[in-house]
Design a protein that fits this description.
Elements lengths: L2 E7 L2 E7 L5 E6 L10 H6 L4 E6 L13 H4 L1 H14 L6 E5 L2 H11 L6 E5 L22 H8 L2 H11 L7 H5 L2 H16 L1 H11 L7 E6 L7 H10 L4 E5 L6 H4 L1 H14 L3
Parallel strand pairs: 3-4, 3-5, 5-6, 6-7, 7-8
Antiparallel strand pairs: 1-2, 2-4
Helix pairs in contact: 3-4
Length: about 270
């Protein structure tokens, strides 16, 4: 059972759930579609010596809604999360970021490199030149952008994305999409990312070689959105990073194989110096 903390940061309520005990803190950052609940099955399997800290990012789950891209993309999320994590007593935690949680974790590290013990990235993007396949590329076309975003990131299409992305087990699409306001936040982040790749991801790519925390990159070998070559590129860009491929898994690792994900987090935590 996790305790709930609701911190209002610059006018935005952020819900953070955390354990009561544990020698090491682990911050679990969800992707999109999703919320902090995407980690529930992983949290159940973590050992008692790890204290999970599970935020709902702004726009998702029990946190306040917003459609301001600057506020709810990775840098804005990180700025708010710093204060929310401090409010719930986070102590030099390990950052674990899946999907959109990856850029958020990296932005946290960029803001305060010495505040975190380690980094785990799962099925994520950290590069401005990641290929954008058709029909997603239509979102970048000036004359078609608005219509394409409404169609490609409609609730129906996003539910299909959840089904398509999971290759081992299922993702609860209704829970991942949440209410209409959460679906709108998903659309804002997806469309904003595609339209502003260089601005949003260029600084992240440039920061990767400067990271000095132990890092692990974990990926599903059947991820239809970011292939294993993206995992290799990510691991190669971070000094000393290790790479682990989960066989048979698609994109939604915390939900598809929570036992393996929990074991990876526990093993990584044990490998860190005190």
């Amino acid at each position: 059972m996790l305790n709930e903390h609701l911190a209002t940061i610059d006018g935005t309520p952020l819900l953070v759930r955390s354990g009561s005990t544990g020698a090491a803190d682990v911050v679990l950052l969800h992707g999109i579609p999703g919320s902090g609940r995407s980690w529930d099955a992983v949290v159940e399997r973590l050992p008692d010596d790890l204290r999970p800290i599970v935020p709902d990012l702004a726009g998702f789950g029990g946190s306040g809604r917003s459609l301001n891209l600057a506020r709810i993309h990775a840098e804005g999320q990180a700025a708010m999360l710093e204060a929310a994590l401090a409010a719930c007593g986070a102590r030099t935690p390990i950052l674990v970021g899946h999907d959109f949680g990856g850029p958020v974790a990296l932005r946290l590290l960029m803001r305060r490199p010495d505040a975190y013990r380690g980094l785990i990235l799962m099925s994520t993007n950290a590069f401005p030149d990641t290929p954008v396949p058709f029909p997603l590329s239509l979102v970048r076309a000036p004359l078609l952008s608005g219509v394409a975003a409404r169609l490609l990131f409609s609730r129906f299409a996003l539910a299909g994305m959840c089904r398509f992305g999971a290759k081992h087990g299922k993702v609860d699409a209704a829970a991942a999409l949440g209410d209409a306001a959460q679906t709108a936040a998903i659309r804002t982040i997806f469309a904003g990312s595609l339209r502003n790749l260089a601005e949003l991801y260029g600084p992240i790519e440039r920061a990767l070689p400067e990271l000095r925390v132990p890092a692990l990159v974990a990926w599903g070998d059947r991820d239809p959105f970011f292939p294993p070559s993206q995992a290799e590129r990510t691991a190669n860009a971070i000094p000393g990073a290790r790479l682990h491929i989960l066989e048979g898994c698609g994109h939604f690792l915390p939900e598809e194989d929570p036992a393996s994900v929990a074991a990876l987090i526990a093993e990584f935590a044990r490998s860190l110096p005190d």
